[in-house]
Write a structure and sequence with these properties.
77 residues, GMP Synthetase, Chain A, domain 3, three-stranded mixed β-sheet
Length: 77
């Protein structure tokens, strides 16, 4: 049986999480809706001016690589 999109997204987040945690932050999956992933950046990432770059160049890039059908990754608060 094929893994769900949500499970595959969660696996991708688990893959990148150690790098984010090394900088004092974290990322958690909120939901997957209409091929858009919504995540919450926490810890040091919550107020960091670089968090938008981390989101797009790190989290979104990896998720789209692992789960190509995903269209976008958004941060929610």
């Amino acid at each position: 049986m094929t893994e769900s999109i949500e499970k595959r997204v969660q696996n991708a987040l688990e893959e990148i999480r150690p790098q984010i945690q090394a900088d004092g932050g974290d990322v958690e999956l909120v939901t997957v809706e209409n091929l858009t992933v919504k995540v919450r950046l926490t810890g040091a990432c919550a107020g960091c001016p670089m968090s938008a770059i981390t989101l797009k160049n790190g989290v979104e890039a990896l998720i789209k690589e692992r789960v190509p059908e995903i269209l976008e990754v958004e941060a929610v608060h």
